[in-house]
Amino acid sequence: MSSDIKIKRVTGTGALGIGRSRLRQVQVTISAAGPGRFTVTDGVGGPVILDLDFEADSTHITNIPDSGILAVTDPVISVATNIVAATIYHA
Q1: For 69, how many CA atoms within 13 A lie in the half-sphere containing its CB?
Q2: Statement: the pTM of the whole predicted model exceeds 0.90
Q3: For residue 57, is it left (φ>0), alpha (ψ between -120 and 50) or beta?
Q4: Three-state SS sequence of the chain
Q5: pLDDT (tens digit, 9 = 90+) per residue, 43-91?
């Protein structure tokens, strides 16, 4: 089964405002200030569903295999250390 992929661009922490969805890919740009960390939870204070570390001053694309990672509630960016911007691809 396939569905249309949507995108959401963020520059900080907080709820994505996309509701129940499957995260399919994340593109993250890290500042030169130091290594980056990008963490997503399932809802505010919910379980961690994605936790990534990146080297400084770089851009990374992380593909999520199969059907992606299901966020039952609204996904929340809970940590965005040295993140300039992130684009989340979801269905």
Answers
A1: 20
A2: yes
A3: left
A4: CCCCCEEEEECCCEECCCCCEEEEEEEEEECCCCCEEEEEEECCCCCEEEEEEECCCEEEEEECCCCCEEECCCEEEEEEECEEEEEEEEC
A5: 999 999 999 999 999 999 999 999 999 999 999 999 999 999 999 999 9
